[in-house]
Every structure is written in C-alpha cells, then in structure tokens.
Amino acid sequence: MRNIGLSLVSFVTEAAQRKTPLYDQHVRLGAKIVSFAGWLMPVQYSSIVEEHQTVRNSVGVFDISHMGQFIVHGVGGRDWLNKMLTNSVDKLDVGTGQYTFLLNHHGGIIDDLIVYQIEDQKYLLVVNAACADEDFAWLQSHLNEDRSCTLTNRSANFGAVAIQGPRVSELFSALFGGDMELPARNHIADFTFNGTMVSAARTGYTGEDGIEVFFGTKDAVKFWDVVIEKGRTLGIKPCGLGARDTLRLEMCYPLNGSDLSPQRNPIEAGLGFFVDLAKPEFVGRDALVKTKESGPAEKLVPFRMMEKGPPPRPHYAVFRNTEHIGEVTSGTVSPSLNWGIGMAYVSSAHAKIGTDIHIEIRGRKFPAIIEKKPLYRKPAS
C-alpha cells in the first residue's frame, strides 16, 4: 500500500462506520481493511500487484456495494434527468446505460455516475460512495414541483460486485447458464440466480471486459461465494481498492475527489464527450458553454515518468522547464507498465501530447512526458 494505489488516500478516514453486506467475507478471506468514504473496505487480499495482474490476465471480483444506488421512476423521469445530468438521457433505451455527470450551478463536478434505463419509465443511477448522500440531497432538492417522477435511495437494500477480466464470459456462463448471453457493452439485463433476480451490466472501471452485478443485500453473501467457487478454475481472485485504483489509472479513468471535483468541470477534465451542449437546459450548462467558447485554462492530462524513481503522488507540483504549470491529481507505479504514471491538471498551453515535463518529488524534479490516453493498451494477440 505504501508504493502503489495511494491516489485514493484522500478518501481514507479514521471514522468509517458502515460495512457492506460482504464485510465478513472479506475478513474471512484475510483482506486488509481500511476506512474509505465512510465504509470499511478491503484494500487488498494478497497484494495489489497480484490482484491487478489477475484482472488483466484472468478475472477478478470487487465488492462495490458501498456505491450508491438511486431509482428515478415516473412519467417525467426522462425530462427531469436530462435537466440534472450532462449527457443526453434521450439516447437511452430500456436496457442501456451511459456515463454522465451531476454538476453544480457553476459547472463543477459533484459526481460522475452511470445512469441505466431499466424499465419504460424507470432509471437506475449508480453513484460514488463518497458522494452518495450529497448526490441524493442535491437531486432531491431539484425534484419537479409537479412530482412527475419520484427519487428513491435503495442503497441500503442493495449490494453489487464488479467481475472484471478477459475470462468474464466463461464465468458469466458458469453463473447464469451456457444459454445466457452477456449483455452488450453498456447494456443491463436481469438474470435468474439461485431463485432470485439480479441485474448485470456490461460496465466496469478497469479497462477489461466485465460486468457489474446488482442484487438485494440478502443475496450478497450467496452470490459472492458462488462467484468465488465458480471462478476457481479460471484463476479468480477477490480484489481490493488498491488494484481498482491502479487499473483505472492505467486507463486514465478519473477518480472523483482527486481528478474530478466541484472546482473542475468536465471540459477541463477532457470529458466533454459526455456533455451534450445541444440540450437547451441542464444544471451547469451556461458555465460549460463559456468554458467551451473561451477554452479551459487548464486541462487534465495523463503522464508517464521517464526514469525509475519514487512514484508520483497527488498534489506534487508539475513544471515545464522552470515554470510551475500544474499539479498531480493521481499517481502510482503501473503494475502493467512498471513505470510511474499519473494524471495532472496543467496549463492548456503545455497540455499537448509529447510535452516534456517534470514532477517535483521531495524537493527533486523528475522527468516525465505527457502521453495519449489510455496509458495502458493490451498487447496485440
């Protein structure tokens, strides 16, 4: 934990009280438990590097029951969500999902999330654990006065796991039957498991193929145990927050609270693709239009260290020659690349791919280079 995966450290507190329905399973499996966003969560079981490589080469399972799950239901749900979120909910059909943002009135990012349309007038929002309470309060305060839709927080009654890796298709068949097909990318569907119904979405946070499965808390332990058992011949390992962090950073997936914040907007973060400015109205739109027209003063860029040395960490200063041009937001040693990598906000004038920069680490400046996303690409087979 000292040398890898610490870009999530800003979320670690000493006062965590909540436990997921899988907490006892993590303890039984010997996980190292840390406090994260108000939850007691496994950071690793064997080692972060070993769990990381398992996901890249076989299949791993993560407990993501700490994430928030909200339901929006009603005839006015689509129009209301279109006003609350940046992406176009009109593009969704039943059984599909999309990545999107919840913004404040200044265009700053309250949270990044996935919204799924699960029925004709029903939507599932999966939000970050650290923001779940704030997200719900914000959304609730903006509900339509005519109550044409309802907002429900089902987080306490539902859990979830992320099953990620190139062998996920084999494990999916073992779990749900060989005649069942994986949902298409960014699609969600219901499946029968052990006499109950679960929802599986073809989504994830690792850059590998995978599914995220949502189930009632009463079914959590049974589902987890069967995943571990059925995945044994595939080399499955339970994986913690540490590997989740290194995997997402290799892919340049942002971490809310580090790379994304209420002081940053999606255009600065290089995620304008998930903002539909053609929509006439949504919270934060005016601020984003101004940023788009004038150009962001800073941009979020991925970088790779050019020589071996101490790993980059959040808040380290970034230099171009002698000029201070920005700050690291996430950093680690990449288990796949065996190099220090990270993301940083730098002045737009110095944000071009291929730009030589320096990261100041403990009073010394170490060379790095701004790279193209993603930092990790699977080798050609």
Write the layout of secondary structure elements.
Blueprint: E1 18-19, H1 23-28, E2 32-36, E3 39-44, H2 48-57, E4 60-63, E5 68-73, H3 77-84, E6 96-103, E7 109-119, E8 122-127, H4 132-141, E9 150-153, E10 158-164, H5 168-176, E11 188-193, E12 196-201, E13 210-216, H6 220-230, E14 237-239, H7 241-250, H8 285-294, E15 298-305, E16 317-320, E17 323-333, E18 340-347, E19 356-361, E20 364-370
Parallel strand pairs: 1-3, 4-14
Antiparallel strand pairs: 2-3, 4-10, 5-8, 5-9, 6-7, 7-8, 10-13, 11-12, 12-13, 15-18, 15-20, 16-17, 16-19, 17-18, 19-20
Q: What's the short version?
A:
This protein has 8 helices and 20 strands. By secondary structure, the chain is of the alpha+beta class. The strands form 4 sheets. A 6-stranded mixed β-sheet has the order 11-12-13-10-4-14, sandwiched between helices.
Helical residue percent band: 10-25%
Our Rg estimate from Cα atoms comes to 21 Å
| DSSP helical segment count | 8
By secondary-structure content and strand pairing, the structural class works out as alpha+beta
Q: Can you describe this structure?
A:
A hairpin with a 2-residue loop joins strand 7 and strand 8. The protein has eight helices and 20 strands. It is of the alpha+beta class and 381 residues long. It has helices spanning 23-28, 48-57, 77-84, 132-141, 168-176, 220-230, 241-250, 285-294; strands at residues 18-19, 32-36, 39-44, 60-63, 68-73, 96-103, 109-119, 122-127, 150-153, 158-164, 188-193, 196-201, 210-216, 237-239, 298-305, 317-320, 323-333, 340-347, 356-361, 364-370. The longest helix is centred in the middle third of the chain and has 11 residues, at 220-230. Residues 1-14 have low confidence and may be disordered. The strands form four sheets. A six-stranded mixed β-sheet has the order 11-12-13-10-4-14, with helices on both faces. It is globular, with a radius of gyration of 21 Å. Helix content is 19%, strand content 33%.
